[in-house]
Amino acid sequence: MKKVITKENLVLISKTPGKQYLGDDETIEQRAQKDGTRWYYALNSIRARIGKLVEADLNALPESHKIDDEDVQFLLNLRESEKIFSQYRKALTDLEEEVEDLGDFNEGLLNQFDSEFIIQRQAAEYIKTNKPDSRVTDETQHFNLHFLHDFTQQTEFKTLHSYIDNFRWESIVKIAKDIIKKLKPAESINDFLQKELGNKGDRIDGFETESQATFYDDFLLYLAKKYYGLKPSIWHPDMGFEGLVIALKNEKELIVRGDLGVSQYASEPVVPEGSSAKVIEKLADYQVFCWEKGVEKVKNPVDHFVGIIGTETITGKDGKKLNTVIFEDPDMDCGLDDQRPVFRISYKSFESGLKNIYGTDRGTNKIGFFEAKEDNIPWALCADEDLEEEIDERYDNVLKRHLV
Questions:
Q1: Rounded CA gap, 273 and 364, in Å?
Q2: Per-residue DSSP letters for 241-264?
Q3: pLDDT tens sequence across 123-167
Q4: Which of 86, 123, 197, 374 is the least crowded, having the fewest Cβ atoms under 10 Å away?
């Protein structure tokens, strides 16, 4: 449940902590997002969740009820897409664990050979003295040695590091293709590139593997937006801070993408001084954090998705008014009984890190190697309250007809 709180110079979205499924009054702790995911956990905070319990109730109905009842089919279809996107998230998380293990393996080899890169000659030398042993049950060791053997049998990649990178990109493409087959969308990824992004050149196979992986992930974000019934926000950066305030009042939480979030900063956030943070704590039980002025950001940050849940105009240490944005970060873990951490940055910092939902920097008008159809791409996503009401209404209909 979300509620808009409006005070002088402050707009704040109060939220029920945790995750809540259709037909269940109880909330469940929402853990921090897993590695390998970017948009999945962020979108969870603005979409309706069907869940296992409702699915079990619906599947327990007589087959005739399931086939003939449009409301039942509607809810089961939503649940099916929910499960498929969850499979995508889990597959990416498993992949990142494999890539991390391979990275550690590569690091160990670099130390062993006292080398800047591991090339095929060194890999072959290592294999000779560390042949896979069927009696050894360490799956990671077996995987690493077979991976190293495959590296020695190809000619495209000269270093183990570049071979690991390509393994990651190729795996993302394969995972995405499998998920798209299960979703059976009306559009293809080439339709997405041309109609949504404005690509007039190559088809997906014409791009390098890394770019293909990025586009496939963006296509699945596009499909998640459709299957979850999410809406583009009315807000555009040209509307400025005042426009963001209006959008937040009308649309509640907004999901945005960019060089944003806790992981983008080189130092830990701090609790701000002054009474403003205490007011927010009392209104919505949030613990406010911020960063010291002039804090450094990490080099080569990875795009991240966060949820905008507030705007506030505060008085800075210099006595000047400062427009700020308050966001939640899906990277943060929080128990149901804990204060939920939220983070405040200046609107200027927010705007400088912002990208549209497919990762285009403002003003560059570029995605990959082609001109982006920028005016067609949202800068934020929000929930469709009409759809949420429809889901509740359809579930009530099912309860009355079949389950009560």
A1: 37
A2: HHHHHHHHHHH-SEEEEES-SGGG
A3: 999 998 887 655 555 778 888 999 999 999 999 999 999 999 999
A4: 86
